Amino acid sequence: MIHIDSIRDKTVLVQTTYHPAPHLETEMEIVEHLLQQGNRVYWLICNADFKVCFNNPEHKKMDCEVCFSRVNKGVNFIKKKIENAHNLHVILYSSFLKQSDFKKSFVPKSDFTDISELKAFRYKNYDSGMATASSLVSFTRNHEPYVTDYKDFIERGLFTGAYLYEAFQMIIEEVKPDLVVLFNGRFIENRPVLRVCQEKKIDYATHERGGKIDSFLFRVNSIPHSIETVSEEMERLWKQAIGNKEEIGETFYTNRIQRVEDAWYSFTKEQQEGRLPESFKHNSGKKVITIFNSSLDEYEGLEGFGPYFYSNDNEGIRQICEALENNTDVKLYLRVHPNLKGLDNSQNQFLRDVIGKYKSVEIIPAEDSVDTYALINKSDIIVVFGSTVGAEAAFAGKNVVLLGRAAYERLDCFVIPKNHAELMTILTDDSYEFPKIKHEDTLKYGFWNESFGYKYKNYSPINLGKGSYKGKQIKANFIIRELRRFINKKR
CA 20 to 30 Å from 206, out of 15, 152, 362, 419? Predict the structure, then answer.
């Protein structure tokens, strides 16, 4: 692993794509850190160049103005506060390739019939369709949006990705960076940069939120979501830990149960502690199995995610329900992920229209106040497709079946069946013996969640989306902010 402190006397290119706190402040932290270590830093800034981006998917003019203003406030703050500010160079895409020139040779495609066709589309060596699909899914909160309804979004997304792919080739040719720093790596505005780095064999680093609110992730030659990288990191942090790592690992789980929001929002904070479904009073003598699904839009577009042998979570749930349709010895629950609350998307429609017709399963809706942790404790078997609930259930000593890729999949605290037939044996054969849970492995996962990333030195978070940098909140120009607020109010 390359530590950020070891990057010295290099040429580093930092791409800004997502300005809300703490991400701009994270880039400020990284830039300042690199400058102090004698690096030459080129800060690549968007000036309404992204026709689609995560923060402004509809490309609203005033949102671009606010973003550009805030980023420039951050840049100027760094320039004034750092001794080595002469080594900081701000560059724009348009200085290397004008969109008007690129547009003359770019032929847009938007006549896709479904999301799968879009995902398969490529621009030269760049998986432009997958990046566009990933951004579209995040925008719609629907893993299977009707692409015919979003032709404009797709056209803008494919154009943005192709433009950035070509512009970035020119930028690295002139800058010749030893390292490129970018946010996340999943979306339209940063995936082309990631792919060019991989093609040209240039080292890159992705940044994201860290394990705690006061830390950030900085991972060299890996995206934040890489299961392989996370697995290796988990083992390394556990081996290198000094102090009571077991107690720290337990803290992760107790904080989750107590709905503490110290890394991300708690999806269970609105649930009623201890509440179980009314039907639990009739479960005497039955084996209680609870499936916890995931919100499919969360990992759409990420490489290497999804179920091991089902096409997706929904299909896996359908086959389980069908196989148990006439089994009166089992009480099956499906706890719908709280992050799906209030969404009328294809996943919820499938659960309602297809899964809802099976008498073998009782669906606990996303908005239901049934307590996830009470449900875990009262179930005999927990089935997950990769959500953190799997590790939490294992920590609680429950029998866990893992059906999809997860950050904790290499730990010895659950069962991974080879196919659907083996899964049904595990769920229905009373003679099947679950392997003994290695409790230490659940603590490894908890410790990693509490420990990964670098502590901020200059950024002080107030909450998950607000904070100050060296005592100052970095805000866009007041007039621009007020103008946007006025325009939005008028709309």
Answer: 152
Of the two residues 13 and 258, the one the predictor is more confident about is: 13
**Dist CA 93 CA 167 (whole Å):** 6
Q: Please report, as a single letter, which amino acid is at residue 285.
A: G
Neighbours of 375 (CB within 10 A): 23
- Measured between alpha carbons, how far is 461 from 216 in angstroms, rounded to an integer? 11
For residues 248-252, give the mean pLDDT.
Answer: 95
Model's pTM, two decimal places? 0.93
Distance, CA of 161 to CA of 106 (rounded, Å)? 11
**Residue 451 pLDDT > 80, yes or no?**
yes
Nearest to 399 by CA among 375, 443, 435, 362: 435
Instruction: Give per-residue pLDDT as tens, 319-362.
Output: 999 999 999 999 999 999 999 999 999 999 999 999 999 999 99
Other CB atoms within a 10 A radius of the CB of residue 369 amount to 12
Q: How confident is the model at residue 263 (pLDDT cuts 50, 70, 90)?
A: confident
When the pLDDT of each residue in the chain is averaged and rounded to a whole number, the result is: 94
pLDDT tier for residue 292 given thresholds of 50, 70 and 90? very high
List of domains in the chain: 4-226+455-490 (3.40.50), 247-450 (3.40.50.2000)
Q: What is the pLDDT of residues 381-391, one digit of tens each?
A: 999 999 999 99
How far apart are the C-alpha atoms of 15 and 236, rounded to whole Å? Answer: 29
Other CB atoms within a 10 A radius of the CB of residue 9 amount to: 9
Of 228, 263, 173, nearest in space to 451 by CA: 263
pLDDT at 108: 81
For range 246-259, the mean pLDDT: 93
Residue 301's pLDDT is what? 64
